[in-house]
Amino acid sequence: MQDERVRYNDSDLQEFKKIIHEKIAKAEKDLALINESFINDQNNGTDDTSPTFKAFEEGAETLSKEQNAILAGRQEKFIRDLKNALIRIENKTYGVCRVTGKLIPKERLLAVPHATLSIEAKNMQK
Q: Which ranges carry the Zinc finger DksA/TraR C4-type domain (predicted)?
């Protein structure tokens, strides 16, 4: 039997809100760590080493900074998506698929709390 509710009740929304706040706190902490390692310009003293080694060292450092920038961007998007989910909770539209208009199963929202699409809608995108 399919769940025909139009939206989650206030108790469910509060449960999701708590989970999302916890995820935001962890994500912001992770983002701070990424940014800290990105900004950290400690020189490990390669100035007196051979030019070949220094070139490898600088290349690795550049790659690491690029990877950190990508990770930071993804983390910022994740935080933004979670904050948008909080807005949907306040509007009482949280958990409603934006394509089908059906309620997204609670199990999916517990796994992906910022989801805006049901599995059905995700599969239609393929």
A: 93-122
